[in-house]
Write a structure and sequence with these properties.
Number of strands of chain B: 13
Mean pLDDT of chain A: 95
Helix content of chain B: 40-55%
Shape of chain A: globular
Strand content of chain B: 15-25%
Low-confidence stretches of chain A: none
Strand order of the largest sheet of chain B: 3-2-1-4-5-6-7
Distance between the termini of chain B: 9 Å
Largest interface: A-B, 17 and 22 residues
Number of domains of chain B: 2
Number of helices of chain B: 14
CATH superfamily of the largest domain in chain B: Glycogen Phosphorylase B
Distance between the termini of chain A: 46 Å
Largest sheet of chain B: 7 strands, parallel
Structural class of chain A: alpha/beta
Number of strands of chain A: 9
Number of domains of chain A: 2
CATH topology of the largest domain in chain A: 7-stranded beta/alpha barrel
CATH class of the largest domain in chain A: Alpha Beta
CATH architecture of the largest domain in chain B: 3-Layer(aba) Sandwich
Order of helices and strands of chain B: EHEEHEHEHHEHEEHEHEHEHEHEHHH
Number of helices of chain A: 16
Oligomer: heterodimer
Mean pLDDT of chain B: 92
Chain lengths: 389, 370
């Protein structure tokens, strides 16, 4: 099991009248009040209680319950700024030895899609330093933002020395093959762990859905499904906020999690591994070839969630152009702000995808519509661009 | 099924959304084998129908328009009397075997109630706007409210053009929400034209439609250095004061007042406008927004407008927040991808807002009472 832990830095209302205005400093870009409120709310509903539950379960099963986390830099900054107890509880979990940490870009960005991968590499290194500083650990497995993956990214991550990389187990890549094995890229020496999206989404999306045949989902039923799965391992990857935030306490999600280790370990041939242990234990069974980027997002499982319409592409291009200018000038403050604006969520809010996905998007957005998201984000980028010259 | 519908206006003559609605609704009802006799006052233009089971019956003359206010007319003493006289006339002229009576807004409600009692058939009323909307919630006139309240109470079923209006009917008129159905309006799509650098307001120049907020936003846009023209299309009691205001604000060079436009001119201006703004203080639905969007024009609507609750691909603002209105106008003029995406997605969504759908939902309501 692996959980993604992330919070974006949401933007203030920023109108065209703010662009280039004297009082518009970069610190005005981010809505610290809203960010603080949301962080506190999610910490109370999800991070603290779930960490506590996991710690008890690890102790109860004497380290046989094992899991992994990927924690973004922006999330850690929030912890340090608003609620250090949250990062302490992650440290406590890590200290059990039953928890592994995964690398990603510090800013949860789309820098892996830039024309050259220097910025991507820098952001990965920033994450590595952050994990080293807080946990005194060097992750061996990498997961890119929203599991975005293609051959080029796999090659780069392999070259940077990681042993494993995580992405979506989509049929687009696997065709008839099962996600429950370890694969390798056609062009790189690294092991690929593929998310079993069906079993993962049973928890992440469908858990409380009453018109789903699997409802109500109990731990013993779910463990039964896992035991019947083919292959070497089942990768269950999901947003950490699934627990208590996307699925509220009232849905019984914590009871489910509480019973899961016992029900899984009841099956003779099942056990838990961290992602590092998975890449050590299992040999690859075949190659995957991914010339076009895939991801774990939406029904499309590609990058159209962030780059699916003209508005998103315009922002993305603007972001890249500003970066080029800033690096020429070399202003560290502005570069840091620019990086915070690279967090993929800013583009996610601008998605105009169809009704089904649109509902999910609306749930996560603080804007009235993707159009408002675009106006605000683009206005901020215009202001940063003026500052860059 | 045969129904008597009592309306006020019908193309080619129309002063507002009510006429557009009656036109689209009656034609689609006729296509669904509902026979409609549509009663309306005589006008200079002859309204007629090319459908066998839709008959337009003009029943005598009156000087009152549905959007009139007694204080604005030169016939203050006669206003109320004229309304009564017209309703009596209708009640007398409507004859035949009908399954139900369907009337629209306050002006014909008295006749509707009288006919229901005389003929013993159910009464359905559509509420396109209430006195609260027309007065901009400032000084609602009890005389209208009482007529509306009586009509709503005696009606067997009420059709509201939005959830917003349904809430007004429940909260302000004390009507049981269970007898109110919401049916959102529709549009016959206009098709796109060659866009020019024009930001458009189109509607009656009354307090309800918020034209002064449009001027305030225009000033902010112009001060910000955008070189664009603002067109104020339509007529109404605020016409002279708005012209003075534009002069006082120093923006009269960039603001064009067109006065009343013909149907063709309206369609043309929708097609060539780059942005349409509907800053209504109170807007039960706002068909004009659908018309603009169907012409490929990105549209900014008041948050409380009925269309804002029904239509996704538009921009929403508080009518009083002219800073944000200006922010959105400038963004639309400046950011081409925003303009293009809104135009494209808006036109796609418009295809869901058909009069066939309105007719189907209206027939559902009819079936519930006969």
């Amino acid at each position: 099991m692996y959980f993604e832990v992330h919070q974006p830095m949401r933007l203030n209302h920023f109108s065209v009248f703010n662009i280039g205005a004297d009082h518009a400093s970069q610190s005005n870009y981010f809505n610290q009040k809203l960010n603080h409120e949301i962080f506190k709310k999610v910490a109370k509903k999800c991070y603290l209680p779930t960490n506590n539950l996991l710690l008890n379960l690890i102790n109860e099963f004497d380290g046989k319950f094992r899991l992994s986390f990927s924690i973004t830099g922006t999330f850690v900054e929030y912890c340090e700024q608003f609620m250090p107890s949250v990062i302490d509880s992650f440290k406590e979990l890590f200290a059990t030895g039953a928890v592994d940490l995964i690398e990603e870009t510090y800013f949860h960005s789309l820098s892996s899609l830039y024309d050259n991968l220097d910025e991507f590499e820098e952001q990965v290194k920033m994450h590595r330093q952050m994990i080293k500083r807080i946990f005194n650990y060097e992750p061996r497995v990498f997961r890119n933002t929203e599991a975005i993956y293609d051959n080029r990214i796999a090659k780069k991550v392999g070259d940077m020395g990681y042993k494993g990389i995580i992405t979506e187990g989509t049929e687009k890549v696997l065709h008839w093959r099962s996600p429950n094995y370890v694969y390798m890229p056609v062009n790189a020496n690294i092991k690929v762990l593929l998310r079993n999206y069906s079993l993962s989404d049973d928890i992440g999306f469908r858990f409380s859905s009453r018109n789903w045949p699997g409802f109500p989902l109990t731990a013993d039923k779910y463990a039964g499904w896992i035991s019947q799965a083919d292959g070497d391992l089942v990768n269950l990857f999901m947003d950490y906020e699934t627990f208590g935030e996307h699925q509220w306490t009232e849905t019984g999600i914590f009871d489910f999690l509480n019973h899961l280790p016992r029900e899984v370990l009841r099956h003779e041939y099942l056990d838990f591994v961290t992602v590092s242990e998975a890449v050590d234990r299992y040999q690859t069974v075949g190659e995957i070839d991914v010339p076009w980027a895939i991801s774990w997002a939406d029904e499309d499982r590609d990058v159209s969630t962030w780059l699916g319409n003209d508005m998103q592409v315009a922002c993305f291009n603007e972001l890249k152009n500003i970066g080029r200018k800033l690096k020429e000038v070399g202003n560290d403050d502005l570069i840091n702000t620019w990086r915070r604006l690279q967090t993929s969520d800013h583009l996610y809010y601008v998605s105009t995808k169809g009704f089904e996905d649109g509902n999910v998007h609306a749930y996560f957005s603080h804007y009235d519509s993707p159009y408002d998201g675009f106006i605000n984000y683009m206005n901020v980028l215009q202001d940063l661009k003026e500052k860059a010259i | 099924m045969k129904i008597a519908m009592i309306g006020w206006e019908y193309p080619p003559f129309k002063a507002g959304g009510l006429g557009t609605h009656c036109y689209g609704l009656t034609r689609s009802l006729a296509d669904r084998d509902v026979s409609v006799d549509f009663y309306m006052p005589k006008t200079k233009h002859n309204a007629n129908s090319d459908k066998n089971n839709l008959v337009i019956k003009e029943v005598g003359e009156t000087e009152i328009f549905p959007y009139d206010r007694p204080e604005d007319r030169e016939i203050p003493g006669q206003f109320f009397e004229s309304v009564y006289r017209y309703n009596d006339l209708i009640a007398e002229k409507v004859k035949g075997n009908y399954d139900l009576i369907h009337c629209h807004d306050w002006l014909t409600m008295k006749a509707g109630v009288a006919l229901k009692e005389k003929m013993g058939v159910p009464l359905v009323i559509s509420v396109h706007s209430t006195e609260y909307d027309r007065s901009g919630w400032l000084y609602p006139n009890d005389w209208f409210i009482n007529i509306e309240k009586e009509g709503m109470e005696k009606a067997d079923r009420i059709i509201a053009v939005s959830h917003f209006t349904k809430r007004v009917i429940v909260d302000k008129y004390g009507i049981n929400p269970d007898k109110i159905s919401v049916v959102h309006n529709a549009v016959y799509p206009l098709g796109e034209g060659e866009k020019q650098n024009i930001v458009l307001f189109l509607g009656r120049l009354t307090i309800q439609k918020g034209p002064e907020f449009f001027l305030k936003a225009a000033k902010k846009v112009l001060e910000h250095g955008e070189n664009t023209r603002f067109v104020v299309a339509g007529m109404g009691d605020m016409f002279p004061s708005l012209i003075d205001k534009a002069v006082d604000m120093g923006i009269s060079n960039n603001v064009i007042f067109t006065g009343l436009l013909t149907e063709e001119e309206v369609e043309h201006i929708y097609r060539i406008a780059s942005v349409y703004v509907m800053p209504s203080v109170s807007e039960p639905f706002g068909i004009t927004a659908l018309e603009a969007i169907s012409a490929g024009t990105p549209t900014i609507v008041s948050k409380t407008a009925g269309v804002a609750e029904a239509f996704k691909n538009c921009l929403r603002v508080d009518f009083w927040d002219t800073d944000e209105m200006a922010n959105k106008i400038i963004s639309l003029l400046r950011y081409d991808p925003l303009h293009k995406t809104l135009a494209r997605e808006g036109k796609r969504e418009i295809d869901l807002f058909t009069w066939e759908r309105v007719a189907d939902k209206t027939i559902d309501v009819y079936n519930g009472v006969i």
